[in-house]
Amino acid sequence: MSFVQQVRALLSRRGMSVTELGDLIGIARPNVSATLAGRHDARSNTLDALAAGLNAQWVLVPNEHLAAVRQVLAGKGTGPDLEAPSAAEMFVKARQ
């Protein structure tokens, strides 16, 4: 999914319009629309502002990790089991 597609998806999830996003970040709606339509190249500070206005971050993902990141974003990836005891906790418990 491209950056622009992600911005559009976040706009939808956040229930925001392009105008509301523009007002929030201080960029005129026509300029936000032009950026999202690919009619001009956006500067990095514009991309930072778009992400911040959507309460998000934009990051570079190395291609070798892209499949794993996509799975996590789709809710299909696995992460650490935060409920599992740590090695130190297991060690202390075994010594008791």
UniProtKB/TrEMBL annotation:
Transmembrane segments: none annotated. SUPFAM superfamilies: lambda repressor-like DNA-binding domains (SSF47413). Residues 7-61 form the HTH cro/C1-type domain. Pfam families: HTH_31 (PF13560). GO terms for molecular function: DNA binding. It comes from the Bacteria. InterPro entries: Cro/C1-type_HTH, Lambda_DNA-bd_dom_sf. This is Transcriptional regulator. It comes from Trinickia dabaoshanensis. The lineage of its organism: Bacteria, Pseudomonadati, Pseudomonadota, Betaproteobacteria, Burkholderiales.
